[in-house]
Amino acid sequence: MAGHSHFSPANVEEHFEFTSEGKKRVIYAFIAGVVALVLGIYLLSKGEAGGHEVANAGHEAVKAGHEAASEHLSGGAVSHQPAAEEHYDWTNRIWANVWLNAVFFTGIAIIGMFFVSLQYLTKSGWSSVMKRVPEAFPKFLYITLPILLLVFFFKGDAIFHWMHHGVTEVGNENYDKIIAGKSGYLNKTFFLVRLVGFFALWIGLWTVLRKKSLEEDLIGGTDLFTQLVRISTAFIVVFGASSSMFAWDWVMSIDTHWFSTMFGWYMFSSWHVTGLAVITLTILLLKDKGYMAYVNENHLHDLGKLMFAFSIFWTYVWFEQFLLIYYANMPEEIIYFLERWEGHNKIYKTSEILMVFLNFFFPFLVLMTRDAKRTRIFLKIAAFFIIVGHYIDFYQMIMPGVLGGHAGYGLVEFGMVTVFASAFIYIVSDELTKASLIAKNHPFLPEAVHHDI
Amino acid sequence: MSHVVSPIREKLVTGGKSYSDVTHDICKQVEGEPTKEWKWAFGISSIVFIYGAYCLFYTWWQGIGVWGLNKTVGWAWDITNFVWWVGIGHAGTLISAVLLLFRQKWRTSINRSAEAMTIFAVLCAASFILAHMGRPWLAHWALPLPNAFGSLWVNFNSPLVWDVFAISTYLSVSLLFWYMGLVPDLASIRDRATTKGRKFWYGLFSLGWTGSSKTWARYEYMSLILAGISTPLVLSVHTIVSMDFATSVIPGWHTTIFPPYFVAGAIFSGFAMVQTLLLITRVVFKLEDYITIEHIEMMNIVITVTGSVVGIAYLTEFFIAWYSGVEYESYAFINRATGPYWWAYWMMMTCNVISPQLFWSKAIRTNLMVSFFLSIVVNVGMWFERFVIIVTSLHRDYLPSSWAMFSPTMYDIGDYIFSFGLFFTLFFLFAKYLPVVNMAEVKSVMKGVSSNFPEKKKATKKTEE
Question: Mind telling me which residue stretches traverse the membrane in this protein (chain A) (predicted)?
Answer without folding.
Answer: 26-44, 98-120, 140-163, 191-209, 229-251, 263-286, 306-327, 347-365, 377-395, 407-428
